[in-house]
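Hey, why these numbers?
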Amino acid sequence: MFLTIANVLGPRDIARVQKKADALDWVDGTRTASGRARAVKRNLQANLRTGPGEGLHTFLMDAITSHPVLKAAAQPARFSRLMLSRTGPGSHYGPHVDNAHVGAGEERVRTDLSFTLFLSDPESYDGGELVVEAQGGVHSAKPAAGDMVLYASGDIHEVRPVTRGERLACVGWIASAVRDPQARASLFELENLRAALGTKLAADEPEHLALEKVISNLVRRWSQD
């Protein structure tokens, strides 16, 4: 999977996040990396467990978890805690694969899907593309601020070196209730069909109920939670 989801945050929300990010404590990103990732990670990460950080974490999590396209595509069961990443000139995150689990204790989450929510205007920095080697080929993304890229955690990916400006992004992981990627893709297609039918058929037409039945029964069949 490689999916760009537009407008997870609007311009006013982006400005709010950027302002609050400037007041946070930032640490070396290698503190949260392990294995090969530690050797190729060169960025800064914010402490989101302080008072201001927790407030920002809650704000971002609410926006992410409530987005209908993300819910339809990921079929989420659990979300990891979020990380805020800052990548400046000369910094990058080389090719790596995400750990199978992140967090510890009650916060431990299996990583089926990863996401990057871009928080900087792409014109404000050079480089910093998110590059993912998926089955369909190599994908490169540097979307508008407020857009999110969703991709399989098991795919090799990297953040290319930033050569000018600063790249601010929010990253996190999802444990999906539907672990089979093909099943998730089929459900996403059906959800897109349901949205399209909503614009063409009256709400009381029987096709809506029939499609809802199919989706619900497939979720029951495929869900692991």
Summary: The chain has a mean pLDDT of 94. Residues 181-222 form one domain. The chain has two domains: 2-176, 181-222. Residues 60 and 147 are 13 Å apart (CA to CA).
